[in-house]
Design goal:
With 159 residues, the chain is mainly beta. The chain has 2 helices and 6 strands, in the order H-H-E-E-E-E-E-E. Strands 1-2 form a two-stranded antiparallel ribbon. The protein is extended.
Length: 159
């Protein structure tokens, strides 16, 4: 008898980066850059690699923040992004409205009134995806990945 197929481990950030293949999503995430030096008909490959201390695939931002700059081989600046230190963020109470099918969500300030908006600025979203949500909804389905049903956390900085 053949072994049951196993879904490889996936992280929420992987899904965000996959969605960033769409230019509009990449722009929302500040990951969009147009290479204006390309020649029509030529093929180009781009690679972004983060490796700190042999931890391939894990990018750790220093506690005091960091500036990210993407430059082309000639030194032309293509994209800049400042990642703020954790202490620079102030807690904002919010509500998350989830689509019924679970494919999207909308974040609003707690107790918001019609027409109210977030103040302009940098925000850090810390999200927890509960694969086993029976504590809040006893009838909810238990999801697992390779047998793991523990909560998954992700942090997304929104410029």
């Amino acid at each position: 008898m053949a072994a049951a197929p196993v879904l490889p481990r996936q992280y929420p950030l992987d899904l965000v980066l996959l969605a960033a293949l769409h230019p509009a999503v990449a722009q929302m995430l500040s990951l969009y850059w147009t290479d204006e030096t390309v020649e029509p008909g030529d093929a180009y490959d781009y690679l972004i690699l983060a490796d700190q201390g042999g931890l391939s695939g894990w990018l750790r931002i220093p506690a005091d923040g960091v500036d990210l700059r993407l430059v082309d081989p000639e030194g032309t600046l293509g994209h800049t992004r400042r990642f703020l230190p954790a202490g620079d963020y102030t807690r904002v109470d919010t509500r998350v409205l989830r689509k019924a099918d679970g494919t999207g969500f909308f974040v609003v300030p707690e107790g918001f009134a019609e027409g109210e908006r977030f103040e302009e600025g940098e925000y850090r979203l810390k999200l927890i995806y509960r694969r086993d949500n029976r504590a809040a909804d006893p009838t909810s389905q238990i999801l697992s990945e390779a047998g793991d049903s523990s909560p998954e956390s992700v942090t997304i900085d929104v410029p």
